[in-house]
Structure to design on (444 residues):
C-alpha cells in the first residue's frame, strides 16, 4: 500500500502541471497512467504537431510541451505508474483506497482525476463474435513475438505498427498484410520495404479488403476477408494482428459513483471538486459552464484543485497563498538554493 | 439556415438547422444527436465523428484533406462513403445533406 497525499489519475499535460502545483504547496502525489508513456493526448495523438496557444510559449510541439512539463516537475521526483489503469476507488473513513488493474494500491486523502477523455485502448475489429479469439489468436499488440515463429500471421492495418510488424515477422513467419485501401500511411521507407518483400515473395498483400468473419472453434481455422466489391476471400491463418490505433474509453471512471454528463464529470469552479468530497476533476474530463477543452484551462483548474486538496491532506494547517518568486518555503520545495 | 439530416443508429431521423460555418459534427453534438462522440473535439485525431454520407451527396462534398483518409483507417467499419463529420463545414451548398451514423464509434 503506497501512502501519499494525493493520487493523480492521468499523466497528460494537465495532470503533469498539477504535480507542480501540489509540490509547491507542500503536498506529495503519485501519478497513474494507462499508457506506456507520459504526456496524454499530446504524446499519443500529436507529438510532432505544433501548439500555438500555451501562454508565453509562442510555439512548441506536443512532445516538447511534455518534456518541458517534466523538466518543471523534476525536482519533486514524482513516481509515475505507467501501463496501469485505475480500476477501483473506495472510501474508508477519511481516506480513499485506490486499486489499479495491476494490483497496485494507494491510500490518499484526495484524488485528482485528470483522465482526459478516458484511457487509451487499442481499437478492435468490428466483426461479430470476435471476443472468443481475442487475447489468444487475435491480438492488438505483440508481447512475445516468438509465438509466431513458423506460423501464418495475418496483419490488418495501414500505419507504421502494421508495416513494422509485417517486416519484422516476415523473417520467421508467413505474413499476410491486409488493408482497407491501396495507400498505406506509414513512413515511406517502411512502405518501400514492404513492397520489396512482396516482390521477393516474403509478404502477401491484399488491399481494399477488410475482415469479414472468422472460422474455427477456439483456434482460428481460417478467416474471410471482404473486398470493396463485396467479393470474399478465404485465408488460412494461425494468428490475426490488428493495428488500428488507439481509442479513448471512459472505462472504470463511470463506475465510481460520480455524476456524469455525457463523458465528462461536472465540477464546481471554485476548486474543481466533484459530487464526492475529496475527488477532484480537471482538464478535458471536467465540465462546467463555459468549459474550454484547452491545455491552458487545465493548468488553471489544476492550480485550484491542488489548493482544494490541501485541507484533506493537512486538516490542522491553514493554506497560505504565496508567490514562487518571493516565498522561501516554496523555493526550498522547488529545490532552489540562494 | 442549412438543414442537415442525421440518421441515428437506432433508426431515428433528425433534421436540424445548422448555422453556416459550424461542422456537421458540431451540429450533432450541440443537438444531442446520438452516436457522434467526437472525442478529440474536431482535431481529426480520433475518428469517433465518423459518418456515412448519403450516396447522392458524396461527390458533391469538398474533397477529403490529407489526413482524413488516414484517420478513417481507424474508424469503426469504414466504407467508401465514409467521412469524418468534423471535417464537413456547413454552408448553403450542404443544405439537405443526409448522413447516417455507424452502429458504433469504436
Ligand atoms: C490533434 C489535437 C490537437 C490539439 N491542439 C491543441 C492546442 O493547440 N491547444 C490546446 O490547448 N489544446 C489542444 N488539444 C487539446 C489538448 O491536447 C487536450 O486539451 C489536453 O491533452 C487535455 O489534457 P488532459 O491532461 O486533461 O488529458 P489527456 O491529455 O487526455 O490525458 C489523460 C490521460 O489519462 C489517462 N487515463 C484515463 N483514464 C485512466 C485510468 N482510469 N487510469 C489510468 N490512466 C487513465 C489516459 O491514458 C491519458 O494519458 C489538441 C488535441 C488534439 C487531439
Ligand atoms: S472529432 Fe475527432 S476526428 Fe472528428
Amino acid at each position: 500500500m503506497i501512502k501519499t497525499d494525493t493520487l493523480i489519475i492521468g499523466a497528460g499535460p494537465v495532470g503533469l502541471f498539477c504535480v507542480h502545483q501540489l509540490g509547491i504547496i507542500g503536498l506529495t502525489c503519485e501519478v497513474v497512467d494507462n499508457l506506456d508513456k507520459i504526456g496524454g493526448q499530446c504524446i499519443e495523438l500529436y507529438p510532432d504537431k505544433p501548439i500555438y496557444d500555451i501562454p508565453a510559449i509562442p510555439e512548441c510541439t506536443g512532445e516538447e510541451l511534455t518534456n518541458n512539463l517534466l523538466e518543471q516537475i523534476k525536482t519533486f521526483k514524482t513516481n509515475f505508474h505507467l501501463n496501469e489503469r485505475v480500476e477501483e476507488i473506495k472510501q474508508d473513513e477519511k481516506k480513499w483506497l485506490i486499486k489499479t488493474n495491476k494490483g497496485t494500491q494507494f491510500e490518499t486523502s484526495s484524488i485528482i482525476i485528470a483522465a482526459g477523455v478516458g484511457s487509451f485502448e487499442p481499437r478492435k475489429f468490428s466483426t461479430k463474435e470476435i471476443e472468443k479469439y481475442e487475447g489468444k489468436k487475435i491480438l492488438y499488440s505483440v508481447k512475445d513475438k516468438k509465438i509466431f515463429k513458423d506460423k501464418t500471421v495475418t496483419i490488418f492495418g495501414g500505419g507504421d505498427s502494421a508495416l513494422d510488424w509485417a517486416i519484422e515477422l516476415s523473417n520467421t513467419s508467413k505474413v499476410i498484410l491486409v488493408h482497407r485501401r491501396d495507400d498505406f500511411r506509414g513512413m515511406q521507407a517502411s512502405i518501400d520495404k514492404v513492397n520489396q518483400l512482396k516482390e521477393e515473395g516474403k509478404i502477401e498483400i491484399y488491399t481494399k479488403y477488410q475482415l469479414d468473419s472468422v472460422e474455427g472453434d477456439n483456434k482460428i481455422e481460417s478467416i474471410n476477408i471482404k473486398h470493396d466489391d463485396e467479393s470474399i476471400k478465404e485465408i488460412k491463418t494461425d494468428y490475426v494482428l490488428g493495428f488500428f490505433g488507439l481509442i479513448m474509453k471512459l472505462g472504470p471512471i463511470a463506475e465510481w459513483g460520480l455524476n456524469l454528463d455525457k463523458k465528462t464529470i461536472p465540477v464546481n469552479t471554485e476548486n474543481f471538486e466533484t459530487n464526492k468530497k475529496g475527488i477532484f476533476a480537471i482538464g478535458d474530463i471536467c465540465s462546467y459552464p463555459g468549459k474550454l477543452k484547452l491545455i491552458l484551462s487545465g493548468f488553471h483548474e489544476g492550480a485550484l484543485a491542488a489548493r482544494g486538496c490541501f485541507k484533506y491532506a493537512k486538516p490542522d494547517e491553514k493554506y497560505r497563498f504565496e508567490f514562487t518568486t518571493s516565498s522561501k518555503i516554496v523555493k526550498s520545495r522547488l529545490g532552489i538554493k540562494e | 439556415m442549412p438543414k442537415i439530416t442525421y440518421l441515428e443508429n437506432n433508426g431515428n431521423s433528425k433534421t436540424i438547422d445548422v448555422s453556416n460555418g459550424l461542422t456537421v459534427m458540431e451540429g450533432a453534438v450541440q443537438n444531442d444527436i446520438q452516436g457522434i462522440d467526437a472525442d478529440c473535439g474536431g482535431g481529426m485525431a480520433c475518428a469517433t465523428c465518423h459518418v456515412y454520407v448519403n450516396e447522392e451527396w458524396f461527390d458533391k462534398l469538398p474533397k477529403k484533406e490529407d489526413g482524413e483518409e488516414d484517420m478513417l483507417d481507424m474508424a469503426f467499419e469504414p466504407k467508401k462513403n465514409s467521412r469524418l463529420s468534423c471535417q464537413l463545414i456547413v454552408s448553403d451548398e450542404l443544405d439537405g445533406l443526409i448522413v447516417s451514423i455507424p452502429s458504433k464509434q469504436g
User: Anything to note?
Assistant: The pocket of FE2/S2 (inorganic) cluster (ligand 2) is lined by residues B 25, 38-40, 42-49, 71, 84, 86 (CB under 6 Å).
